[in-house]
Amino acid sequence: MNISTNTALQEQIQDLKAHEKIIGLVPTMGALHEGHLSLVNFAYQYCDVVVVSIFVNPTQFNNSGDLEKYPRNFEKDYQLLISNNPKTIVYTPSINHVYGEDVKAEEFDFGSIVSYMEGQYRQGHFNGVGTVLKRLFAIVKPHKAFFGEKDFQQLQLVKKLVEITQQPVEVIGSPTLRMPNGLAESSRNYRLTPAEVEEASLIYKALSQAKTMFNDFSINEIKSSIQDLFEDHQLLELEYFEVAPTSTLIPAQTKKTHLNYRAFIAAYIRDVRLIDNLALN
Q1: Where is ATP bound in this sequence (predicted)?
Q2: In the β-sheet with 236-245, what is the strand arrangement from edge to edge?
Q3: How confident is the model over 57-88, as pLDDT tens digits?
Q4: Which fold has domain 187-279?
Q5: Which residues are catalytic?
Q6: Contact at 8 Å (CB) between 134 and 253?
């Protein structure tokens, strides 16, 4: 079913909770793909009913051009979700339903997890993400919320947000769904030609190379190797490649044996910005 008002959604959820149903939330901005469906199906392993919100959040775009270019196709998204699982509640609020009159981002202290990588290159982005999620959690009141590991920095931010705001939501991460060539499923892939989709497989190749090198090479050697890989490639421009412990997300210069590390990458193909990450150990 599709619900667009907060009142109707809250009535539905109160009724489900009265029948002791576990409610999950998968927040999206639409332009849905197989990665989203994989996340919804993952959520159904934990929940009786999943609410999928479709809301293009204006406060998380630090580039107004990106906001305008963001693909929107509600009818296609809705059919995809309902044919995947008819129990799914599709929540499509207006800006007014989420923000009221006050369409601006709150300031949060997320600490080091937003200081680098996406936080460094997309100023203000994470405050916008935190603001909309705080509001969606308050409206939907889910027991659990689900996020893909493709946006690993965002996943860590959401865990921190719930800690800061003390909202009673369990945050669960789901593994990244990849295309056959390794490219992470993303709404931005819609803007690539088939040839560019193949070229963009370099991003996953770079992450895989970092994983292969991780035990035997220093972080500087790994970074240098990845930079060489991109310098040999005409179509993709590397924005950043970092190795960071998952606990702090502060880019590391040296490895410590007791920490878990991930590689993080952002690259452009034309004006399309793609991000990805991979566990290294």
Answers
A1: 29-36, 148-151, 177, 185-188
A2: 236-245, 261-269, 272-279
A3: 999 987 777 788 787 889 999 999 999 999 99
A4: Pantoate--beta-alanine Ligase; Chain: A,domain 2 (3.30.1300)
A5: 36
A6: no
